C-alpha cells in the first residue's frame, strides 16, 4: 500500500508498529497496548494506551516515542497520549502474531 492510499489511521497504526517495549521484542500495537486511536477535528489524534506493567521503568520513553512518531505524520495537527491501566493489560490482548513470537501459543 503506498503512502497516498493509506488512511490516516493506517499511517498511525504503521508508526505504532515501530514502537517497542524494550523488554519485549514485539511492538506495542501487536502487544495490544494501544486501546484506542481517535481522530478528531483538524486531525487531532487521541491515543489511549497502557503498559505491560504499571511500574514500567521506561513508561515515559515509550509515551514520548509514541507522541513524537505520531506527531511526525503528515496531516497530524496535535497528539494527546493518555496512559491508562483500566483495564489492566494481559497477554490475551496480544495479536496472534505476537503470541506466536513470544511462544504463548
Automatic annotation (TrEMBL):
Q: Which domain of life is it from?
A: Bacteria
Could you tell me which species this protein originates from? Answer: Chitinophaga rhizophila
Tell me the organism's taxonomic lineage.
Bacteria, Pseudomonadati, Bacteroidota, Chitinophagia, Chitinophagales
What is the name attached to this protein's record?
A: Iron-sulfur cluster assembly protein
What positions does the domain MIP18 family-like occupy? Answer: 9-81
Output the SUPFAM superfamilies linked to this UniProt entry.
Fe-S cluster assembly (FSCA) domain-like (SSF117916)
User: Could you tell me which InterPro entries the record lists for this protein?
Assistant: Fe-S_Maturation_MIP18, FSCA_dom_sf, MIP18-like
